Every structure is written in C-alpha cells, then in structure tokens.
Amino acid sequence: MPKGIVVVDKERCKGCGLCIEACPFGVLGFSSEYNSSGYQVVYMEHPDKCTGCAICANVCPDVALEVYRQEPAKEAA
Question: What's the pLDDT score for residue 71?
C-alpha cells in the first residue's frame, strides 16, 4: 500500500476542519499551533495511516494542503 504525506501550509489553513472530516482513515487532526491569523491549524495526527488518497486536499477550500504519495520499495527476489 502506498504511503502518503500531507504537507499543510499553516498560513493558508483557516482551521475549518473539512479535511479532518473528509479523511477516510482519520489521519488529520487539529494541532495545538495557531497561525498568524489566529486559526488553529491541521496536522498529520496519525501519519502511519495515510495512503496519499488526497481527498483532504480536494476538499480544502483554501488550497492549504499538498499530498505526496510514495510507493513502497520493491523487495529484491
């Protein structure tokens, strides 16, 4: 299964939580950090569960998320 990484642009995030609700794997959560506008930002609470499906990025109205997918390494036979 591919491994995903979600990169959050903290200054663009307005803490609406749409990405948290949309994630089918429960990867995202609210961080204890706030951005310069005073919004509580999102982070990868459970990075081991991320598959890189990018649903979170697709629902983000502020384009604050980028998702990268890393395919697992092939084992030499």
Answer: 76
Scanning the structure block, which residue is given the tokens 């990025």? Answer: 57
pTM of the model: 0.86
Q: Is residue 43 assigned to a domain?
A: yes
Containing structural domain, residue 42: 3-70
Strand-pair partners of 34: 40
Q: How far apart are CA 40 and CA 47, in angstroms?
A: 19
Task: Check residue 57 and report its DSSP letter.
Answer: H
- Which distant-in-sequence residues (6+ apart) come within 8 Å of 76 by Cβ? none
Express each pLDDT in 8-51 by its tens digit.
999 999 999 999 999 999 999 999 999 999 999 999 999 999 99
Phi, psi of 27 (to 5 degrees): -75, -40
